[in-house]
Specification:
- It is a single chain.
- By secondary structure, the chain is of the alpha/beta class.
- It is about 55% helix and about 10% strand.
- α6 links the parallel β5 and β6.
C-alpha cells in the first residue's frame, strides 16, 4: 500500500538550480612510482614486525603476549591485503566500449521545443541505438527538509531523461510538497518493513525503468551523474556502477575523522577491487540494472547493511560491478557522536553478519578466489576496530601486575623500532594518499571499539538493530548517551597514567608502558573534550528547535551547492 503524488507544476518553466559541478577524475593511479615504493616499503615493515612478534625468543608473559599477538595478527592480515588491493588499482574500468557509448549517449531531440532543448534533463539517454529508461530514487527518513530540497533539485536537473522519485519513509507532508514543487514524484509507504531496502523494493514495484539510481537524501548529485555512469551498462554483464561518497561538511572533529577515514577506501581500495570484480555498493551514489537486482529477489532486506549484502548476492550470480573513482555527488559525513555511532554500528553489523552467517570462504559460495578474499576482508574489517580495546589493556597489565608482552631483555628502543616499521610507515602511506596526517581519523579508530564490540554481540545474539538514517537531525541526543564506555575507559586510563608516572619517578627510569598508556589517555581525552564541545553546541540548538516547534515554523537552511562542490574540489586537491 502506498500514496503516490505525481504533481509537476510546470517543471519546464522553472529554471533548474545548478547542482554541484562534476569533478574531474579524482583518483590517483595505484601505479604511481612513489605510491608503489611506499606500499612495498610498508609491506616490508609489516612482515618485519610480524617476524618480531612471532619470534619465540621475544615472547614475554603469556597473557599480554597473547593479547598483543591476537590484535596485531588481525591488523597485519588486514594491512597486507590492503597493500595487495592498492597495488591492484591501476586498472581503469572505462574501456573503448564505455567511451564509445558515452560519446553517443546524449543528443538533443528535435521533436522538443526550443525551451525544452536547452534542458539537458529532457534529452534521451541512448545505448546501442535505443533509449534506455532510468528512475532516480531519493530515499528519505526524517532528514532536514532543506537538505532533501537541494538533493531533489539537483537530481531533477541531471542531464539525461529520467524520472526522479522521492521515497519518503518519514511520511512528511513537507517532503511531499517539495517533491511536487521541483517536478519529482512522491511515494509514501504505509509501513517501514525492510527499512531502506524495503523502501527501494517498494518503489521498484511501482516503476519500470531499466536502470535505477539510489541517492541518500543528503547527497547532491552533479549534472553529469548519469552521463558518466550509464555508459558502463553497454556491457550486459554489469549489475551496478558505484561512485564515491565525497563529503562537504568536514567542519568538526567527528566529521573530519569519519570523512577522511573513508578517503583511502574510495581512492585506492575500491578501485583495486575493480581488478577482482569485487567492488561493492555503499548504499548511495550508485546505479543498478533492474534485471540484475530482480534476479537476486530485490535489495536484500534481512540486514541493515543492504548494500554490501546485495553486492555479494549479485557477484555470486556472476554479475559484474564497477567502481568509478570520480566525485559525482557531494554529501554529509556524520558530524555528531550519535550519527557516527549509528552509522558504524550499522556497517559493522553487516560485516559481522556476512562473516558468521554467509562466510565467503564456504564452498557454497559461487565466488572466485579473489572475490572470496576481498569479501573476507570486508567481513573481518571491523575486527580491527576491536583490536584497540585489547591493546588499551596491555599497558595497565604491566603498570599494575608487572606483566609484559615482550621479553625483558628487549629494550623499549628495539620494540619501538619494529613497532614504527609497522605503524609509522602506514601513517606515512596515509599521509601521502591524503596529503596530510589526519589525527582525527586515528582518534576515531582508537575510540570506536565499543561500537564494534556491540555490533559483534548483536550478531551473535541475533539482536535486531533499529534503522536510523545518518542524516536524521530530528532527534539529536547528548553525545555522552552514546559513549559511556569511552568515558569510563578514559577515567581508568587517566588514573593508570597517574600511577605509572608516580612509579617511574620512584624508579628513576621512564617506561614504555607509561608512555603507551599516557598516549592512549590523551587520545581518549581528545574524544571526550570533542564530545563536551558538541554537547555545549547542542543545547542552544535544541532550544531553538523547541521554539520553532511551539511556533509551528520551520527554519529553512539552504545548502549552497556551489560551496559543497568547491569543498569537494579542495579535498581532492589536498589529496
Amino acid at each position: 500500500m502506498s500514496t503516490i503524488d505525481v504533481r509537476t507544476r510546470a517543471a519546464e518553466d522553472e529554471p533548474a538550480a545548478p547542482p554541484p559541478r562534476a569533478g574531474r577524475n579524482d583518483h590517483v593511479t595505484a601505479q604511481s612510482p612513489t605510491l608503489v615504493l611506499l606500499v612495498l616499503v610498508a609491506t616490508i615493515g609489516i612482515l618485519a614486525y610480524a617476524a618480531f612478534l612471532l619470534n619465540p625468543a621475544n615472547r614475554g608473559d603469556l597473557v599480554p603476549y597473547v593479547m598483543v599477538l591476537t590484535a596485531e595478527a588481525i591488523l597485519i592480515f588486514q594491512a597486507l591485503l590492503s597493500m595487495w588491493t592498492i597495488l591492484s588499482g591501476g586498472h581503469d574500468a572505462r574501456d573503448f566500449a564505455y567511451f564509445s557509448a558515452r560519446e553517443r549517449l546524449l543528443s538533443s531531440p528535435e521533436d522538443l521545443g526550443p525551451r525544452a532543448q536547452r534542458r539537458r534533463s529532457r534529452w534521451p539517454l541512448m545505448l546501442e541505438g535505443r533509449e534506455i529508461t532510468v528512475d532516480v530514487f531519493i530515499t528519505t527518513y526524517g532528514e532536514d527538509v532543506a537538505v532533501i530540497r537541494e538533493t531533489v533539485r539537483a537530481a531533477v536537473a541531471m542531464a539525461g531523461r529520467h524520472v526522479t522519485w522521492v521515497l519518503d519513509d518519514g511520511r512528511s507532508d513537507e517532503v511531499r510538497d517539495l517533491a511536487a514543487e521541483h517536478g519529482a514524484r512522491y511515494v509514501r509507504r504505509l509501513s517501514g518493513n525492510g527499512a531502506k531496502a524495503g523502501n527501494i523494493n517498494h518503489a521498484l514495484a511501482l516503476t519500470n525503468g531499466e536502470l535505477f539510481v539510489v541517492l541518500d537524501a543528503d547527497f547532491v548529485p552533479s549534472e553529469n551523474f548519469l552521463v558518466e555512469t550509464v555508459p558502463f551498462f553497454v556491457n550486459p554483464d554489469v549489475a551496478f556502477v558505484q561512485t564515491p561518497q565525497t563529503y562537504g561538511n568536514l567542519h568538526n572533529l567527528i566529521s573530519k575523522g569519519a570523512g577522511y577515514m573513508q578517503s583511502v577506501f574510495y581512492r585506492f581500495i575500491q578501485p583495486g577491487r575493480n581488478r577482482f570484480n569485487a567492488a561493492f555498493c555503499v548504499g548511495t551514489n550508485v546505479v543498478f540494472r533492474r534485471a540484475a537486482v530482480d534476479e537476486v529477489g530485490g535489495m536484500f532486506t534481512d540486514s541493515k547493511s543492504e548494500d554490501v549484502w546485495t553486492s555479494l548476492l549479485l557477484h555470486e550470480k556472476g554479475w559484474k560491478s564497477v567502481f568509478l573513482p570520480m566525485t559525482l555527488a557531494v554529501g554529509e559525513a556524520p558530524d555528531t557522536v550519535e550519527a557516527y555511532t549509528k552509522q558504524q554500528l550499522r556497517w559493522a553489523t553487516g560485516g559481522f553478519e556476512i562473516l558468521l552467517s554467509h562466510n565467503p570462504l564456504s564452498r557454497k559460495r559461487r565466488l572466485t578466489v579473489d572475490q572470496r578474499l576481498q569479501y573476507l576482508v570486508t567481513a573481518t574489517h571491523y575486527l580491527t576496530g576491536i583490536c584497540p580495546l585489547i591493546l588499551l589493556l596491555v599497558p595497565p597489565l604491566e603498570i599494575y601486575l608487572d606483566l609484559r608482552p615482550m621479553d625483558l631483555t628487549i629494550t623499549w628502543y628495539t620494540w619501538i623500532l619494529y613497532y614504527a616499521g609497522f605503524y609509522v610507515l602506514q601513517i606515512a602511506l596515509a599521509f601521502y594518499t591524503l596529503g596530510s596526517f589526519r589525527w582525527q581519523t586515528l582518534m576515531l579508530a582508537t575510540v570506536s571499539f565499543p561500537i564494534y564490540v556491540r555490533a559483534l554481540i548483536n550478531v551473535i545474539s541475533g539482536r535486531e538493530q533499529k534503522w536510523s538514517a545518518t542524516g536524521d537531525r530530528s532527534r539529536v541526543s547528548s553525545p555522552f548517551n552514546f559513549m559511556i564506555p569511552q568515558v569510563l575507559f578514559f577515567a581508568f586510563l587517566l588514573l593508570t597514567s597517574g600511577v605509572a608516572v608516580w612509579r617511574d619517578l620512584d624508579n628513576g627510569v621512564p617506561s614504555l608502558a607509561m608512555a603507551w598508556n599516557v598516549t592512549n589517555t590523551m587520545i581518549l581525552g581528545f574524544f571526550v573534550l570533542g564530545a563536551a564541545r558538541e554537547a555545549r553546541q547542542l543545547r542552544p540548538s535544541a532550544s531553538r528547535s523547541a521554539r520553532r516547534a511551539r511556533s509551528g515554523g520551520t527554519r529553512m537552511i539552504r545548502r549552497p551547492v556551489g560551496v559543497l562542490a568547491r569543498v569537494a574540489e579542495e579535498q581532492r586537491g589536498a589529496a
